[in-house]
Amino acid sequence: MASLACTVDGIKFSNPFVIGSGPPGTNAKVIAKAFEEGWGGVIAKTISLDASKVTNVAPRYARMRASESREVLGWQNIELISDRPFDTWMDEFKQLKDSYPDGVLIASVMEEYNKDAWIELIERTQESGVDAFELNFSCPHGLPERKMGAAMGQNSEILEEVCGWVNSVATIPVWAKMTPNVTHIVDPARAALRAGCEGVAAINTILSVMGVDLETLRPQPTVEGYSVPGGYSCKAVRPIALRMVMELATMMYGGGSGNPIGEMSSGEFPDRSISAIGGVETGEDAAQFILLGGSTVQVCTGVMIHGYKLASELCRGLEAFMEKHGFDSIEDFRGHSLQYFSTHAELVRRQHEVKAREKAERAGIVTKDTAWDGDSFVEQSNRLVSND
Ligand SMILES: Cc1cc2nc3c(=O)[nH]c(=O)nc-3n(C[C@H](O)[C@H](O)[C@H](O)COP(=O)(O)O)c2cc1C
Asked: Cβ < 6 Å from ligand 1: which residues?
């Protein structure tokens, strides 16, 4: 019987499905709803010490739909972190932990490049009883103007220093959330893990421009006639997220015979975790992220499209996948598919080998001892002679 329960960095999850930081974890009411609906954990909307610096605009989303089915494929947002006061959040975290002691509650936090601010943020937040931290080094819009979010996550040196500050005071597990808006995601991830983070989360949104309205000639989403590039999420980003999770897992846990990122194939951080994110809407989507090394799987936009009840569908789909393959636990298949990534040269070599074998077999040439047979034994022997 397949079990979805898993323990990651010492935290017990009833299932690996975690609400990703964003609107679905934006206050105590919606977080409570997520726990009621059976989500394994919730990462609250990102908070910082001074919410008065945060001012959101409306509209702040734009969607890409399939032309016929109208299904939502891509979602852009220009939303900032939480605009709710830090003290309100602390009260809500405490209430939530009192009401849902078994619900895994993770605080997503972000600050400017200032040691005292980060230390205050971590110390005060962990007093509220949250189970872990996710450090938001990845928001691609608005906050980089204050040198926060992706601006920090794109600079491995700064990121390592900030993770060091956090880990000097954090008494609970810390995940660093990576931005995909870099050339090599393994570099900042390595810096975070070197600085003592228990895990990495990937990916945040991909910097994007959703489109230009051909009537008004204004970019979308349009606010008083103007726009800014935003963050892209939903189904459309899943292949990119899978690739980045694969690269992180290969660096951390080791990979196949020909390593796709051209690095050592034994892992550098075998005991750390990956929380995989990007375009998950079904249990089958999640299974793929786990096969590529994810210990937990986060969902943000999927909840905005399908609602909190999605949790039961995700669990059902993942369980069905596990039953089909005879996997009893998440650990039974986590990272299983990493071994099948290789280099392009290796693919060419394998293909040549198969073609050469097929050609020999067509010509009746014995290439394996199992191919010898009693009736054509003499002919088979003759075909292997080189000097007649
Ligand atoms: C409207 C919106 C707001 C978001 N806000 C945050 C945030 O405050 N902090 C954060 O770390 N990520 C935030 N994200 C990013 C998501 O947590 C997630 O990394 C990303 O959307 C990809 O996953 P998905 O395709 O499941 O949404 C936000 C995403 C959306 C769509």
From this structure: 20-23, 45-46, 75, 77, 79, 81, 108, 136, 138-139, 177, 204-205, 233-234, 237, 277-280, 299-302
